[in-house]
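Researcher: Please generate the 3D structure of the following complex. Treat every line as part of one assembly.
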Amino acid sequence: MSTNYRVIGTRPIRHDGADKVTGRALYGADINLAGMLHGYVLRSPHAHAIIKRIDTAKARALDGVKAVVTAADFPVTPDRIVDLGEGETPLSCIRGNVLASGKVLYRGHAVAAVAAINTHIAEEAVKLIEVEYEVLPAVLTAPEAMAEGASILHDTLKTKELGEQTGRVSNVAEHFRHTMGDVAKGFADATVIVERTFDTATVHQGYIEPHNATALWNNDGRVHVWCSTQGSFVVRDTIACVLDLPVSQVKVTPMEIGGGFGGKIPVYLEPVAALLSKMSGRPVKIVMSRKDVFEGSGPTPGSHTRVKMGVNAEGKITAAEATLAFEAGAYPGAMVGPAAMTVFAAYDVANVTIDGYDVVVNKPSTAAYRAPGAPNAAFATEQVVDEIAEKLGMDPIDLRLKNAAKEGTRRADGPKFRKIGCVEVLQAMKASEHYRSELGGPNRGRGVAVGFWFNVGLPSSVTISVNADGTVNLVEGSTDIGGTRTSIAMQAAEVLGITAEQVRPTVVDTDSVGFTGVTGGSRTTFATGMAAYEAAQDVVRQMKERAAKIWETTADAVALDAGVFSHEGKQFTFAELAEKLGSTGGPVVGRGAVNPRGAGGSFAGVVVDVEVDPETGKTTILRFTSVQDAGKAIHPSYVEGQMQGGSVQGIGWALNEEYYMNTEGTMTNSSLLDYRMPTALDLPMIETIIVEVPNPSHPFGVRGVGEANIVPPTPAIANALYRALGGGVRLTRLPMNPPAVMRAVWSKAN
Amino acid sequence: MPGKIHVNTTINGEATEFLCEPRQTLLECLRDTLNLTGTKEGCGDGNCGSCTVVMDGRIVTSCLVLGVEAAGARIDTIEGMARGNQLHPLQQSFLEHAALQCGICTPGFLLAARELLENEPDPSEERIRWFLANNLCRCTGYDKIVRAVQDAAKQMREAKA
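Model: Done. Output below.
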């Protein structure tokens, strides 16, 4: 394939743009069905308690109430392990998180739900449900949960230790280890060793649209769900598991989605709405409040990390060691695995040991959040590397370049890197006008960091049908959170030789397209893009056959170049041939169904300048540059958008955001006022540098850009703060908010 | 249950009437009663700006206004921003600058930005950031939103000149 593209690399207006700037686009909460009821969920006021009794009689008796549901209404089936796209999980954990059974494990845990003729009545009814709790001590951090004699969340959870079941009941779901080389020898060879511990608080993905679900349990037994999700097929399969239905009985229509970042992969409301619909015989809509979103939907893990690294006098890293303890929330699955895969991924180190602990605590069950686990790990590693550079008197980018991972570098968790762009990202950072600029003024500092995310493949399906006017309709199953309709359509347009506007992409329900995995793992432009590429190639094959039929030759004798089919001086434009399909054999429909391997990992880097007010502890971001290897930027504006969005989430994570928990396990800042995500006023323009080291496993070289950009901001800002404070004191806990900065200022003064 | 109140109002220039309970917000009335779902709910307590509408010439978060307060008022929502088939320059600029990703905050940003540009045709970047600080966006990092507003302001000034 020539790299002289006609469509790829351009910036067409997105196909759903007009709908989204006029208010016409329909999101989950916008649905309004005839006879629809409104649901409301009762949530636990305790972080850890036994449910002794639930009495719903008074709620049922309230005028306007049509149905009440508790976990007792789930079908009774034996527990089993299911894989719904986010790894293997016991069905009992998924069900238990949808509606608590026996115990509540976090404040905000769903206990019961009501459907009524309007939301206000449903809310009133929920208050009439009587629940008797026996309150248990709550454990809120990994160290507390791992301590001897800690309150135990699950009396059936037995620790898996280095791959073996131990039979020991504890809050540690798993302890795993990756090791290679000889770490003791590596540290013996080092002339400089730095070891520190780092903590990060629980933070939320912060999508602006709350979770919502509308369900109709139809009279033919089929369940139809409309919802806001990153993966309609995962919702379908989860509902089928939780409600013990065949997947063919469930249809999920993904509505427009108001942000996800990983947090809209899990299922919360959908099975509840379905059960309420079954009981009432009417469609039921449930929408979470913002407080419910904070208390009841997946945040990202708090984490406790120790990193130790050694370098020799030449600046070569000789050994690296990490211990990662991550807070999974109420159920196992803390994303500590990905943290371990990424913690030293930017570096070529021969001697490495990484220990990971997946720990359950009495906080909401965590969900993915943009490169889940990686930012927590990079916050540690990238500060240790910065400290080593300072001790060696080396430029921090030069130290990283000297040790950068490249093609053939083996990671401690096993894989050898194929073609990657770590070096190219570092070189772009170093060459940037930003890095070469002077940073004058007191209380200012510059920091750099890099980060890695491996990206994923997973199945995707696309069909393309050709219209008589030379346009095509593209049908796909990937929900579009940030412009992927367009980045997928552009890949089809490139193959077909037509414009992006001549491809009309539509995201459809689970009855109308083949299985498609979640919009996550930075996979959509990569994997669904590949499905579109395959479908477009299928169209080209069929169109060539039609041309061959007209020209009385063979299909392989027909050429397609820049949207023109030709053979021995005869030509049809794509549109001219499209018009003749009816008379040459009927419609042309191309299909692409893929499960690609070879997702290209993406590296990202940050250069940031900060200024600290030493009297208030407030940190101002003066200048911020995000650098990322996109492989190939299909639509550069949306690549930049991913980089800018991930960067600003990283800035919020660095400076403000946290679940501020009291000792009883209540989040005391569960509003958008108090949680304080960055506003337009908190930020400068976010500069972007797109690096393109093509992924050899994708026809256009795409790597996927959704995630790696959130990995380096927190340590880059920490490194900048270190210098802004004049050196000598490092901020090792997130968030680095004004009180934390003041403590650093005071510790230096004393 | 209290009875419903009859409200006469003007929405996007059209005389409109609806019934609402005293406890219902303007946001609920717009979305659930009048099916004007372009106005979005992100928080319900005035902190995200997704439900921004214009009430008697001033932007308000409609989740903090009661439905009954719309009586006699002029309400403008995102559904009334384009003139027929002609997008407002801000709407067009948001598309050209890729100033939206998921789009849920977009209606609120557009109405807030229009309010700014109608009163201050040539705002500085700092002024745009101040004015839009009531509206949260989690996808874009605001960079492309600010640029889209700057560009729309320029086009609107040139169109007037």
